[in-house]
Specification:
Layout: E1 2-9, E2 14-17, E3 26-37, E4 45-52, E5 70-79, E6 84-92, E7 101-107, E8 113-123, H1 126-139
Antiparallel strand pairs: 1-8, 2-7, 3-8, 4-5, 4-7, 5-6
Length: 145
């Protein structure tokens, strides 16, 4: 089954998408991640939206694929007058996770941006749920506390 999530964020914003369950027996995998300016006919600039496994203490445009908590990132650049998108790059991890995720957004023009995320639900065995939860606790000690 595919679950969809959509919304918008102001530049520098962060939102939580609630996915976790009590026993962690449902896994999730990102299958689609898209962004679009709220007012696409007039807004230019560079937009960076990212999905993380943990809440971020600061929201930046830095995309570090060595960060084990980064699940996905979109870079969207566009020109205004006349408006046209110049570059869209989407990268997301095929990792299965069973925790809440956090979406962050930064824009050079401080404009709102909309997101659309499709996440596939995957039933997990007891062992797979334990492995996913333990991996998250090992990477992020605050998850277990």
């Amino acid at each position: 089954m595919i679950k969809t999530f959509r919304g918008n964020l102001d530049s520098g914003g962060q939102t939580r998408i609630r996915l976790s369950t009590k026993q962690g027996k449902i896994g999730y995998k990102i299958v689609n991640f898209q962004v679009m300016p709220v007012n696409p006919t007039t807004e230019g600039g560079e937009k960076v939206m990212k999905i993380f496994k943990i809440k971020q203490t600061s929201v930046t445009a830095i995309v570090d694929f060595a960060d084990g908590n980064l699940l996905g990132s979109v870079l969207f650049t566009s020109e205004a007058n006349p408006y046209y998108p110049t570059h869209i790059s989407t990268v997301f991890e095929q990792e299965v996770f069973n925790q809440d995720v956090y979406v962050t957004y930064v824009c050079t023009q401080t404009k709102k941006c909309s997101y659309y995320i499709e996440i596939e639900t995957i039933p997990l065995t007891d062992n797979a749920a334990s492995v996913s939860t333990l991996r998250d606790i090992r990477l992020n000690p605050q998850v277990g506390g």
